[in-house]
From TrEMBL:
<feature type="domain" description="CBS">
    <location>
        <begin position="350"/>
        <end position="408"/>
    </location>
</feature>
<dbReference type="GO" id="GO:0015095">
    <property type="term" value="F:magnesium ion transmembrane transporter activity"/>
</dbReference>
<dbReference type="Pfam" id="PF26205">
    <property type="entry name" value="SH3_actinomycetes"/>
</dbReference>
<dbReference type="InterPro" id="IPR000644">
    <property type="entry name" value="CBS_dom"/>
</dbReference>
<dbReference type="Pfam" id="PF00571">
    <property type="entry name" value="CBS"/>
</dbReference>
<dbReference type="InterPro" id="IPR006669">
    <property type="entry name" value="MgtE_transporter"/>
</dbReference>
<dbReference type="GO" id="GO:0016020">
    <property type="term" value="C:membrane"/>
</dbReference>
<dbReference type="Pfam" id="PF03448">
    <property type="entry name" value="MgtE_N"/>
</dbReference>
<dbReference type="InterPro" id="IPR038076">
    <property type="entry name" value="MgtE_N_sf"/>
</dbReference>
<dbReference type="InterPro" id="IPR046342">
    <property type="entry name" value="CBS_dom_sf"/>
</dbReference>
<dbReference type="InterPro" id="IPR058838">
    <property type="entry name" value="SH3_actinomycetes"/>
</dbReference>
<dbReference type="InterPro" id="IPR006668">
    <property type="entry name" value="Mg_transptr_MgtE_intracell_dom"/>
</dbReference>
<keyword id="KW-0129">CBS domain</keyword>
<dbReference type="InterPro" id="IPR011033">
    <property type="entry name" value="PRC_barrel-like_sf"/>
</dbReference>
<protein>
    <submittedName>
        <fullName>Magnesium transporter</fullName>
    </submittedName>
</protein>
Amino acid sequence: MTVATRVYVARLAGLAALDPNGDQVGRVRDAVVRLRTTNRPPQIVGLVAEMPLRRRIFLPIGRVTSFDPEAVMLATGTLNLRRFEKRANELLVLHDLLDRRVEVDGRPGTVVDLAMEQSRNGEWLVSRVAVREHTGRLTRRGHLLQVEYERVRGLIGPTDTQGTASLLAVFDRMRPADMANALQDLPDARRNEVAAALDDERLADVLGELPEHDQVEILAGLDRERAADVLEEMDPDDAADLLAELPKPEQDVLLDLMQPDEADPVRQLMKYQRGTAGSVMTSEPVILTPDATVAEALARIREPQLSPVVAAQVFVARAPMATPTGKYLGMVHFQRLLREPPSSQLGHIVDNDLDPLHENTTLTEITRRMATYDLVAMPVVDSANRLVGAVTVDDVLDHSLPEDWRDRDADDAA
């Protein structure tokens, strides 16, 4: 067991919370601090842990037996699975206190982290604050100070004294889906502020994991050129879904601001009727010609920007390689690629036994066929048998679940 005398809260974010058997209960997302009417330091009363299905629960600090570098260990006992709700005299360390602008001995700075220590009577109290000094110079970062709580002024104050840098550093360790979930817990203004501070690629990934109404609100908070840049970083099918939620004039403005080679596939996807293969497919699967080798195919599917479902197979077609391609010939699963000599040509090992989907194939039929043949992706062709895209299993799930499945409020109500 690790007996920690001082624990910095930001370092706990994302750690697994384990029961005495080593089974994961959830992942730590924040710590709850209780304010006091006296001058005593605030008390850490518990942790917020995220369980499967995105439900957040409260873990009393008394249930924690140790803080390890890779996990938080819990004592034996029954957990209260009610959804966590912050009380009037409580704050969340990461969401409410990180990035606060404060003063240390009269000098301005920004809160980077808070440390808690256990007192003799067993309480965990905020003992020290990590503060980055302000230098007044754009090219130089201030010193990082670790000072006693009593030396800090302005820690508990209006929310408009918060920045975003330290919270972004915590979020940077999260997967896009977890970060999207965390953003939903923030007040609207704070959420939009944090979202605007993300780089284009990261924000695009996170937007794809948010409910549609949150996507629209965040996009509306950006200037139009920045919004177009973010849309360019999104997968074309996700960008098309998001644009479909906007008024037609706004769609046209943003599409015109996008680079033509990024906007064209999005425009094409938006022409398809909702609930069909054309409306849910990705227009950028992995496509190679029949004379390409197994070695070339393996190199393509290793590209880090490809999602697992897109990289699971290679589609083979005549040139041109951009959708719509030449004549569609078939597909090769990555397991088949691993079993074949690197010099073998794809045209000799292509699987063309399964009929491809057509642009107007319904979602019900797509689901039935993918389940029947245990596929994670299926090709979509047009009337001329040209490959126009591929439907992946995550596309099917996204459009089969209730429209509000990403919404935290809907999950809690259920």
